Amino acid sequence: MNEKRKTAAELIAELGSDPEHQAMLARKEEERKQLLEERDRAARPIVEALRAAGVNVQGVADLLDGRKLDPAIISILLEHVKRLEYPDQIREMLLRALGSPVARPYWDELVALFEQNAAHLPPAIHYVAAIALDGAFSHEAIDDLLRLVKDPRLGHARAPLLFTLKRSKDPRAKMLLLELRDDPSIGGEVKRMRRLDRKRDGAAG
Predict the structure, then answer these.
(1) Domain boundaries, the chain
(2) In this structure, how many other beta carbons lie within 10 angstroms of the beta carbon of residue 146?
(3) Distance between CA 44 and CA 58 in Å, rounded?
(4) Are 97 and 69 within 8 A, CB to CB?
(5) Using an 8 Å Cβ cutoff, are 149 and 162 in contact?
(6) 44-85, pLDDT tens digit by residue?
(7) By three-state DSSP, how is residue 25 classified?
(8) What stretches of the chain show up as alpha helix (H) in DSSP?
(9) With CB atoms counted within 10 Å of each terminal CB, which end of the chain scores lower, N or C?
(10) Rounded Cα gap, residues 179 and 176, in angstroms
């Protein structure tokens, strides 16, 4: 019971001199590198298409660092996100990159990706198509937004669009948020948002 507790520094030093621990770290780092290499190989057609369009990128991840997109890039990303041969991780990255105001001219295609699941996205990343819609949304598309969020067939994948509704100044958006409190798929998300808003308002007051 009186044994001296080791400090964090002592534990780190002990692990640093442990051959088994160091070997485990080395294996994990090697696995990480292999995964990155596999991802880069799989994404090579996208990178080549972007470079042919005059976009100097090393990989798909470059499109997520705030780089200014243009319509030519959006068109390429939309073309490739629909291809089933890409791993889900790459298609998820493409969808996140598509969440930009620059993608507004392609709004109808983004809606089709989400509503009809035209890219055959698995449930785990289908909601990312809604994130892309959130990033590309403009008030002119409010009717589309209301229709999508009301559609129970889209299930929990609609959750990112709740934030789009919340930002909208259209009174129909405010009313729909209230109605969605009892939605079996996203009602919990609506209630959670409202609780956070009340806490925030209470703190501000």
Answers:
(1) 39-136
(2) 18
(3) 9
(4) yes
(5) yes
(6) 999 999 999 888 888 888 887 655 678 888 999 999 999 988
(7) helix
(8) 8-16, 19-42, 44-52, 71-81, 88-98, 107-115, 123-136, 142-150, 159-167, 171-179, 187-204
(9) N
(10) 5
